[in-house]
């Protein structure tokens, strides 16, 4: 393995532990008030009628459920990642019930995902989870390379990160396949949009 790959694995472990401590210290009521609607500078990036790819957050990730409800209320089709197996490529499928999540089931990564009968769709814009980001839009993810690969095969799709402020890193190891984010939203500010 290259040094960058080893660096990334160690970084991920440390940053995920830091994220867990941060979220555990947040009062539930505070957490419920964050990430309600996209800030205006980010909302402007999402054209009317665009299909928006979101994610179903795990316990420590920035919650994306309110954005899902907001986009649906505003006439957007919304989609979530779906995997046929752990080693299958990431696809997106239509998410129809962001309020009740009755259309989701647990998938290979222990994440809720649309059931097999939900149609596959291609989002025009992605709201993405992350382990860490930099002030100029670099992203460190879970290490599956899922978003990098998806963005590689869908050029022109913009990706907007949602994160806790403590996920900001001074710098991150970069590899040729890494795709930059167009903006990152935290509870206190927006980084970008970058050109
Ligand atoms: N909420 C969420 N959805 C997402 C991602 C993510 O980071 N967060 N992904 C980002 O690419 C994709 C899924 N990729 C993933 C790749 C690896 C692991 C992972 O290593 N998870 C841990 C813990 C899982 C568990 O609790 O069972 C693991 O498997 O050890 C998770 C997701 C698409 N959906
Ligand atoms: N476009 C690509 N084509 C082929 N392999 C890729 C591509 N992008 C990433 N990979 C591979 O995926 C693996 C993980 O990449 P990386 O560490 O950048 O993941 P990540 O962006 O942190 O994860 P994720 O996007 O799933 O949250 C690496 O082995 C990398 O070589």
Automatic annotation (TrEMBL):
<protein>
    <recommendedName>
        <fullName>5-formyltetrahydrofolate cyclo-ligase</fullName>
        <ecNumber>6.3.3.2</ecNumber>
    </recommendedName>
</protein>
<dbReference type="GO" id="GO:0005524">
    <property type="term" value="F:ATP binding"/>
</dbReference>
<keyword id="KW-0479">Metal-binding</keyword>
<dbReference type="GO" id="GO:0009396">
    <property type="term" value="P:folic acid-containing compound biosynthetic process"/>
</dbReference>
<dbReference type="InterPro" id="IPR037171">
    <property type="entry name" value="NagB/RpiA_transferase-like"/>
</dbReference>
<dbReference type="Pfam" id="PF01812">
    <property type="entry name" value="5-FTHF_cyc-lig"/>
</dbReference>
<dbReference type="InterPro" id="IPR002698">
    <property type="entry name" value="FTHF_cligase"/>
</dbReference>
<feature type="binding site">
    <location>
        <begin position="139"/>
        <end position="147"/>
    </location>
    <ligand>
        <name>ATP</name>
    </ligand>
</feature>
<keyword id="KW-0067">ATP-binding</keyword>
<keyword id="KW-0460">Magnesium</keyword>
<dbReference type="GO" id="GO:0046872">
    <property type="term" value="F:metal ion binding"/>
</dbReference>
<dbReference type="GO" id="GO:0035999">
    <property type="term" value="P:tetrahydrofolate interconversion"/>
</dbReference>
<keyword id="KW-0436">Ligase</keyword>
<keyword id="KW-0547">Nucleotide-binding</keyword>
<dbReference type="GO" id="GO:0030272">
    <property type="term" value="F:5-formyltetrahydrofolate cyclo-ligase activity"/>
</dbReference>
<feature type="binding site">
    <location>
        <begin position="8"/>
        <end position="12"/>
    </location>
    <ligand>
        <name>ATP</name>
    </ligand>
</feature>
<feature type="binding site">
    <location>
        <position position="61"/>
    </location>
    <ligand>
        <name>substrate</name>
    </ligand>
</feature>
<comment type="similarity">
    <text>Belongs to the 5-formyltetrahydrofolate cyclo-ligase family.</text>
</comment>
<dbReference type="InterPro" id="IPR024185">
    <property type="entry name" value="FTHF_cligase-like_sf"/>
</dbReference>
């Amino acid at each position: 393995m290259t040094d960058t790959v080893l660096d990334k694995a160690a970084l991920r472990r440390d940053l995920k532990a830091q994220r867990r401590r941060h979220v555990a210290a947040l009062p539930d009521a505070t957490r419920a008030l964050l990430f309600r609607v996209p800030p205006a500078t980010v909302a402007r990036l999402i054209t009317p009628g665009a299909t928006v790819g979101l994610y179903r957050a795990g316990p420590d990730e920035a919650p994306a459920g309110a954005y899902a409800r907001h986009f649906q209320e505003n006439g957007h089709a919304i989609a979530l990642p779906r995997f046929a197996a752990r080693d299958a490529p990431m696809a997106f499928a239509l998410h129809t019930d962001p309020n009740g999540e009755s259309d989701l089931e647990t998938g290979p990564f222990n994440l809720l995902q649309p059931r097999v009968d939900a149609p596959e769709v291609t989002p025009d814009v992605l709201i993405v989870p992350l382990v860490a980001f930099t002030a100029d839009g670099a992203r460190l993810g879970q290490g599956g390379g899922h978003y990098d690969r998806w963005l590689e095969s869908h050029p022109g799709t913009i990706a907007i990160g949602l994160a806790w402020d403590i996920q900001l890193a001074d710098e991150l190891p970069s590899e040729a396949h890494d795709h930059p984010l167009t903006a990152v939203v935290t509870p206190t500010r927006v980084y970008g949009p970058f050109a």
